[in-house]
Each structure stands twice: as C-alpha cells, then as structure tokens.
Protein 1
Amino acid sequence: MRWSIAQSRLLIAGLVCLVLPYAQAQAPKRSPKMIYVDNGSLRLGIDLNMGGSITYLAPADHPERNVINSADLGRQIQLSFYSGPVPYQPAGSQMSEAWKGLGWNPIQTGDYYGNPSKIIESRVSKNRLYVKCIPMHWPLRNVPGECQFEVWLELQGNTVQAHCRLTNKRNDLTQYSARGQELPAVYVNAPYHHLVTYDGPRPWSNDKTTEIRNRLDKENHWATWLATENWAAQVDDSDWGLGIWNPDTSRFSGGFCGEPGVGGPSDSPTGYIAPNRTEILDHDIVYDFRYVLILGNLPQIREYAYRHADRTHLPSWTFQNTRDGWSYENATDAGWPVRRGLEVKLGEGINRLVSPEFAAPTEDIRAVEVTASCTARLENLTLDWASSNTPLEHRMTIPWIDAAGPHTYRFPLRGTLPAKDVLTQLRLEVLSHQADAAVLHIAGIRLVK
C-alpha cells in the first residue's frame, strides 16, 4: 500500500495520532498551473490547481533542486485548520470514515477525494506572490469550506516571508473548543530526511541542536516537541535543506516517512514539519499568522532565527483585538472580535485559562502579573506553570480581591523556578459557584523581570 503522508497528519486538536496512514482516494491527475517569482537567490512557485499552495522552492542557480514534496493533495506547503464539531458532516455529504476524527478541517490544496480548492484571485509581481482561495474539507467529498484562505509570499534573500489569513464565514455560530493548528504544514523530499531543531532549556546560547529521529512508517505517529528557539529544519546528509521559523510558536511536530535518501516531488518518501499552536477559531474570525522559510545550510537557518528573534522582552499578553493564543477549559468568551481584554464566561465549577506555549529563561523571571476583575465573588486565583522538564504541575494560589475595577494580582515566582531552565506555559484557574452570568475580565497578563 502506498503511504499517503497527509492522511497520517498529527491530529493536533487533541495531540492524538492516527495509527496507520491510508491511501488517498483515486482522483484524476491535473496538470500544474504554476506561477513563479525569482530574486536571483531563490525560485518560488505556487500551483493554482492546488489552491495556490507552495509546490516549488529551489536555489535560483539550481532550479532542478526543488525541495517540496507533492505526492498527493495533502502535502506541499499549505494551510490547514481545525475546529468542531467532530465529526463534521454537512447534510448530504460523503465523508471518509478514516478521517471523520479530524472534524472541521479545511485545507488549502483540496480534499481526500482529489477535488481541488477554488482560486478566487492570484497576483504576481517582483519577488511577490498572492493567492486567495476557497479551501476544501479534507475528509469530505467536494465540500468547500465556509471560509477563505489568503497567502502573501515575498522573497528576501534566501528566505520566503509568508503572511497567511483565514477568514471564517460559518453558519454554525457555536464557539468550539480550541484545537491545534498547523501553521503551516511543510512537506519535503526524501534527501532531506534529517529533522533538526533546538529543544533544550538554554535557547539562544548556541547550545547543541537535536535531531528528531521519528519515523512515521515505523512508529505510527509524528513526533512532537518544544522548539525553544521557534525553528526546525529538514536537511540532507550535507546539512543543507529547508528550515522554518515561526516566532509565535514553540510547539512543533514532524518526522519522516518512507525510505530516506532518494526521491523527488512526486515520490512517496517525505519529511514533515509543522509549527503548532492551539487556537479558538470562531465562526466569523479573521485569523492571521506569519512564518519564514529559509533555504540554506543548518548554521544559516539557525543564524536567521538568532538574528531576527526578539529576545529583549519577556512574554506578555494585552488581548488587544486578539486572544494572543490563550484558550479555555470549562469556559467560553464573548467571541470575535476580542476588544480590550478577554471577557470569559465562567461555567459552574473549575474554569481554566491556558496560555500558548513559549520559552522564557527562568533566571529572567521575578513574577507573573494578572490584571483582572469579575462580576461574581470569587475566593482565589490560582496560577499553574510548566518548565521544559515538568508539566503544568507547579501551583500558587492567592486571595481574590473584591475591587470596584480591575486589580493586578502578583504571583512572586522568584525562588520557585528551576535554575537554568525555561518557563513554557501558564494556566489560570478560578472556581465559580454560579451556574451562569459570571464574567471574568482579563485585561492583561505579563511575566515580570
């Protein structure tokens, strides 16, 4: 049976992996409809018969050296988003049983049955490409998403600067739980079988890198890890290949499937990388993210991240027109758009607010401050935190202050954090005794030096 890697994609919604990949349904072959840009360093191409996904990236002076794998419609470099319900099956639609666990899953290229996404608009100018499409739901036969994808790509030196946007127009107004997103999904050819990253507790110190040796065809799942410098790369035996840097994402997934070494864009063996971030995708959300592709050797890829990362500030979240990657357990909020803070509708019992993952050196952190107010009387506010080696099991509880307006709660962490490590995630917890009507307003959260 031929491996179809896209169909063994990590179900990052719940960090669950499919046990076995499945062959893609038979579909007619379509000739590529390519548009290209070339800046003298890189040559970049997108296929308008595959939703405008990236299917070609090579050095300009070696155009035969395309690193991107396109053996089926679920590979390429493309957008893929997840939400509820699970399963997602509009009335009268046909769904692949193998993929019903994905739920709502529009992807840029097309569906499992080979139906491509519909291009609405495309533009090409010097060093720039733009595409807008209506994506298809991967598990369903010929069901367009109630959404649009837009991608802006610009060549700068040996990099591709990408800006991506999801615009939802769903009729289902439910606010579904946050799920993991692929930001984006990246598939490369067989020569680039060494997956290298930095996942240690001393980011930005030129500490030794790690090779992720996960094989999907042997272990039946992709690897997942905390990339504390926000990058990973698939390189060949000479350490040359494709890197991706997403400065807003620390959780990555990836690996390799098939026989390493020899194979091109149409061959089954492939490597995979995806920066992952857990997000709520409202029925009407406009969700943007950015990433950078770097074509070069491993030191060049890592050096790019070092040169462009903002290492002067600790993480902080002000929730101005965005949730900043925070999500909820046993709670919802006022919906999109977010305006001047989170308006969290508490459920009866324990409610949790969970941060995105990050990597902040523990020696730099004195405290965590939370500016909040609530329409109901609360007893305590609890903060849990995780480091690179421990999950969300550290805990500090302080009394709730019944103030007329927002109050800043300070959690003094100095002396409680492990030395020479990184703080990687926060979780706020409140206990509500009201069945409804209680609203917790979070104006801001920050790590204090």
Note: The mean pLDDT is 92.
Protein 2
Amino acid sequence: MSRSLWSRRNFLASCSAGLAGAAASMKQAAGETESKAATGYSQRLSLAQLNAWEALGYGMFIHFGMSTYVQNELPDGKAPATTYAPDRLDVDQWISVARDAGMKYAVLCAKHVAGHCLWPTRYTDYSVANSSDKTDVIGKFVEACRKRGVLPGLYYCSWDNHNRFGSKTPSDPAGDFPSYTTSLYQTFQTSQITELLTEYGPIHEVWIDIPGVLGRGYRTFLYNHVAQLQPEAVIMMNSGISTQENYNIDYAWPSDLIAIERSLPPEKGHQKVRTIEGKDYYMPGEVCDPIGKEWFYVDGDLPREDAVLADIYQKTRQRGANLLLDVPPDRHGLIPDESIQALQRLRKNAGL
C-alpha cells in the first residue's frame, strides 16, 4: 500500500477480489472440508482451526513499552518518546523463557494506552523510531518466535491517550457521553493494523483491546479487515474482566475468542457455543492474568505464590480455556530472574 492512510474505501474496493482468496486459503490451511451446515455453527474459522488453537493451551502475554518506564499502566501519553529507554533489550530472551516454560504461543503488546508504538510505524512519530532504543521490537519478536517454535500474536489497544484524533478516551472525565473514537482515529488504527499484519509475516493471534470505544460498525469492519489480511489468525476482541457467562455483544462482537480477563471460567466450564443474534458460534475462551499483580513491570511486583499460579493454570485448563499468562520485561528489557524461576516451578508443578 502507499504511505497514505488505509481507509474503508480502500478496503471495500479490494473486497471482491480479496475475500474469495482469503476464504480459499483458510480452507486449504485447515485441511478439511466441513461446511457450516454440517457443524451447525456460523463462525468464520473452522472447528479444526479453533480446536488447534485450543490445543496450544498455554501462552505468554508480554506487556512492555512506555508504561514500563513511566511506571503507570494508563499514562496520559505526554512523556517524550525518549522516555522509552531499555539498555539491555533482549527479545530473544523473552521467547526462550516462554518456550522453556512450556508455552506454545506469545502475544506482544504493540501499542498500549500510552500510544507509543514498538515498531517504526509510518503513521505517528511516537514510536521506537524516535526513542532511546530504536529496535523494531515487533520484528525481533516475530523473528524470535519463529526461531524457537513459538507462535506469534500481536496486541493493539484502541484506547490511545497520545494519538487521539479528537477521540474521547476512558482517561477523560465522564461527562455526558461515553468514550468514543472518531473516524480519523479509526482510519489511523486501520493503517497501523495493516502495517502490523502485512509487514511481519503470518501472525497467529490478533488481540484488540478496549473494543467498545470503536463502535459496532467500525469494529465489524476492522474484524473483516484483519481476517482478510491474516485469514488463519484467531481474532480476539477483549470482552473484559468477567467469567464471561454473559457475553457483551455491544462491547466486543464480532470476535473468534472470548477473553476472561483476571478471572477464571465458571466451575461448570467455559461455555464454548454462544447464540448471537439468532446464530450459533463456537467461541473458545482465553484467560489472561499477570504473573504478579500488574500487567507492566513495576518495582517490587513479584510473582504470585507457586500454589496460586498452579491453581490458575489447572483450573483454567480443567474448565476448558487457554491460559495467556502475562510476564512483563523490566526496564532493562529483560524478563526478571524471579519470573523465570516462578515459570519453571509452575511447569514442574503443573506437569507441563
């Protein structure tokens, strides 16, 4: 694509040729011929593809970026880009730790609430290109995953306190209207997602956080756009902090997965088949929880007790969901030894 922002018009113009090819590619990758009529389900991906994702079982969430350096999960986006300054950045170490812990996939935060981007994006100056360490972390991450047999996933936050384009974010006073994104911001997000999904090869999972601020119309467009660019990827619109016995369609639909953030599936197990607007969808669950108390590295935030981590893992898996355990690198750009040791003990305790 050109350096101009990708728009809905560009996308729609390409649909007639692109979607047919994407669908064919998806079926070929699945290696099966089941039809929606045969399964009774209406989701985009086949049961074989979703079952293969479920079989991975255990992955690493990686929160790292501007929040690591300002020691605030939800910054105002005003810190200069040079504030991001790892002095011993080693992305290969992160993925080696994940592999050695028994994890099969990893999801890296490409952009969080601060708005700072871990790749040299063309669409904002607020990125590693203008930071104290200019490493393309996304590129290094994907390369490290492929070297070590770990499947790469990318996270993108729709709540952005730096690149606002007139949007109202959850950081703003409540006022008379809920948070929202403007069409200008949505065009910006589409352009960045397009960069991430066309310049780094196959991505296994695409995580969109705070999808409620996008609105149903743009969220549907974005889901279809991601599916066109990476037809084999599972798409997560984060449905939030809940056991997810009740799924909020207005906030998170459409999605391939159901996020169970900082919670466990209900004791009766994760409900994988959901009826949405009159159709049945097979939607696996993914528990996401940090190894300590915080998503990003914070001084003094040590891993939780071994018994607690083992309980989270065992109950998540017994109740039919995957576990995406967040293990944040520190300000050096390294996963701390305390976390590495906790992961090794968890692998032993859980029999991984």
Note: The longest strand covers residues 105-111.
Protein 3
Amino acid sequence: MAESMAEFVVYKDKAGEWRWRLVHRNTNIIADSGEGYERKAGAENGIQSVKDNAPDAPIKYLD
C-alpha cells in the first residue's frame, strides 16, 4: 500500500479540549475538527466520521 500524503493529528488545545487536524506531509492543514471535544474519544470519533462519511464526497460550488 502506498504511503499516505497526510495524517490525522489529535491534540489538546489551550482550553484543555481534544481536537484533530488532517495535516499534509508538507505541514499544511487540510482540515480540522472545527470544535473541541471533552474526551479524546470524541476527537477520534470525529476522525472516523470523516473517513466513513466523506470518502467520495462531491464538490458543491456556491457561485
């Protein structure tokens, strides 16, 4: 299997909440949780939701 060009990073923010980021290997942030979670498991569930629900999401343009 080819190596991924990005990885999910789970971390605690300054408020003590758990968050995630999808970071490209060039260090650009591709996506983030947009909200903090009280528990690490909440952030992990958010990552899994993105993986499960948007693998082939279409692009919607708002002109």
Note: The mean pLDDT is 95.
Protein 4
Amino acid sequence: MTALRTATAGLALLLAAACTAPAPPRSQASAAAGTVCAAPQGPPEAATPTTIDVIEQAYLCILGNYYSGATLDARSLLATGFVALTQELNRNGRDVPEATMPALTGDRKADWTAFEAVYRKVTDQVPDLRDKLAVVTLEAIVASLGDNHARWTHDAGGRHPDSYDGDGYGLGLQANVNGPQVDGNPGVALPPLFVTTVQGGAAQAAGLHPGDIIESINGSAPFIDGKATPAIAALYPRYPQASPVRLLLQRQSTGRRWSVTLKPGLFQRDLAALQVVQSKLLDDDIAYVRMRGFTPDSADRVLKAISRLRTGRTLTGVVLDLRGNGGGIPTESIRLVSAFAHDKVTAYQCTVDGKCETSWTDDTVELVDLPLMVLTDRSCASACEHVSSAVKDLGIGQLVGTRTAGVISGPAQSYLLGNNTTLGFPTRHHLGPKREVIDRIGVPPDHHVPLTPKDAAAGRDPALAKALTLLRK
C-alpha cells in the first residue's frame, strides 16, 4: 500500500509540474496587476505605494485562489474595505461627502467597478491621505476573511520583526496570554494574567519575576467578567514608536502591589531561547526535547537529539515539548509524526467543496519506537497542531498541558502583488486525521495540567512532572 501511495504521489507531482504555467518574473508582476497573482520569484524588491490597482489585484486574487473564493460573497470584502476607508477619513478629520458605500448587487465585476469609482472620487479629494487609505482598505479586505493564515505583508512603517540579529523587541516579558492569542482568539484566555517568563530588557531592569500578576495595563483591566480585553495587546508592542506601558502588579509570595512603567525596546535574548531544538536527559532514561518551531531540518534535529541521548543507554520514553511552538513548515510536522507511526494519515487538506488531499506519514523516516508524551499549550499553533492532532488521533502518544491554539486554517500560499508586497492565504483548509476541524477549536490534551502563577513563581513545571509520572506507569 505504501509503495502504491508513493508512486501515485510522484505521478501527481509530475502532472502538476507539467500542467502548471511557470510564475512570471517579478518584473512582470506589475504589468499583471488586476489580472493575475503569482508566486514570488527571486529575491524581494522594495515595495512601492499601494494603489487602487493593487487593491483590485488582491481582490481578484482572493476570489480566484482563496480556499472559499469560488463561493465567497465578494460584497463582504468590499463593504469591509469601505468601512475601513471611512473610519480612516474620520480619524484624520477629513470626511468626504462622496464617501458613501455604493449599491452592490452580487455581480463581482460590476460591484468592483462601482467600488472603484467611489474610491477614486474620495481619494482624489484627499491626495495626501491616498497611500494611508489604500493600506487600511486592503488590510481590512484581507482581515474580513477571518482566516488566521491570511496576511498581507507590507512595509508597515518600521514594524519590528520577532528578532533583529538575535535581539528581541518589546517589554522583555511573556505572559500566560500571548500576542497571537489576543489578536486571533481572545475568548480562550483565562484569568488571571501573569508573567510566565522574563526575557530581559525593561521587564528585567524593573525587577519583574515569573508569577507576578498583572492587575491592570495602562489603567485598564486585562479581564472583565472573565473575558480578555484588548488591553492585553499592549504587552506585545510591534512598532519602534510604541508608547511606554504602565502596569499594576501583585507578587503573591509577598503581597506586594506596585506600579511600573516599561518602555519597549530592543533587548538581548538568552542564547538558549534562540535554539529551535534543545534536548537533555531526564531521570537517566527519558529523552526530553523542546522544539520551538518547524524550521528547515528541525524534525531531523529532534530525531538526532533523541539518537544522541540514546547512545550508550536504554531509553524508556520521550517527552516532546511543543509549548510555545508557533508552527512553520508543514513537511517538517509530517516527518516528526512519521518517527512515531508509519502508513498513517496525518491530516487532510480540503477545498470548499469537500475534495481533500491526504497527508500521509513519510515512511522513509526511521521509527523511534519509544513511548511518547507531548507537552502542549495555547501557544502551540499551526504545524504544531498538525503534530498534536496526529499524536492524539493515531494513539501514538499522550498530550499533557492545555489545549492548543486553534490557529490552523491551512497552509498559506504566497502571491506577489504589483507593488512588490505579498498576499498570503490558504487554498485548502486543514482537517485532522479523523477529519475533525481543529481551526479555532484546538486540540484538547489527554491530561489537562495548566500552569498557575504559583507554579511560575516557584519555577515548577507541573505538565512536565505529569508527563514523567505517566511514563513511569
């Protein structure tokens, strides 16, 4: 069966290569604006201003290629884009009488023509805002998909990436409610809000400790009636011009309550935190491997780490720590699962009409053949959830910790727009091995072991302790 499946997959790839036209060079992308979108080719070029033609290209690209583009009501894209445009006019005190949403009929081409006519009429009256209006309009159109793997990547005026040459940017702390969770799925956050890790920077200089409870952020409560508020987002600033953040803190061990103002900035990360894969031996016979992301060769690095720990001794189990793993390359998640099971379905990637591609294990990967415990949390997302759901559904291990993030709509395909910015979104949606929806739901653990403020303050890891206990049974 495996050989037949491999041959079939190889034939499918050959047919796809023969039938797919090559993507146009980057220099041709601008000429294609409004008609096609293609995969980026070659090194990135500097982005040029966003225009209504680029917005049109993105609109057509979504309708032609997005997972549900064929059945999507395009009026929702245009209406959301127009809302963002009028709100930006209002924020700048420059409202325009002609900024009235045109009547839309459901005819995609006619609706775009009507939208474009009004858009041009409005922006012609505020030429100094033209670039900003284009950006917020396109951002809103992409956001209206409500897809956690849909993004428009562009120059956002100096936005900091996660790291600069090994440095981090921000307040220098992590809390039990993370940034992506606040942005995409705040309903899963649970009080209290507390510091889980002090990474450096302003938080370290101010003497914050793991376990410190954050009672307010800039004067606002992080939770109201048990629900997370937008105030939490201030803990994770994204721009170099971000304002200082005022926190009211409580330290349970001493009862101390105090305020501190933290200024966002660059800080040097701990070298260990930059390692994608870390490993060590626990109790002389259990391999512990932490994997922070699914980067190139990361699965093989995990397996090599287990092999090294196995040299000269008999291991009785593996603890794979995927907490804080935000995902990455889908093929790496398949290779990792394949070290613990062969000839199994790891996931399905499906179109809106229910036609699915099957993701099988890579049976060229050597089996580890050891009991497996996987540590998960609300920061385990995307490819991390691919692994978690496969481990649970296929019965190849147990999950310990908390439910995963529920951020796995599907692998994103990138498309180059005419101004050298990139639009990305899934062309298929992900289902687990049992065809269950994981996106927005997450994968529940077999053993629910949350971290508490007291645990964080004492340096205890209850999930790891539970995993070790289970391996000893």
Note: Residues 23-65+68-146 form one domain.
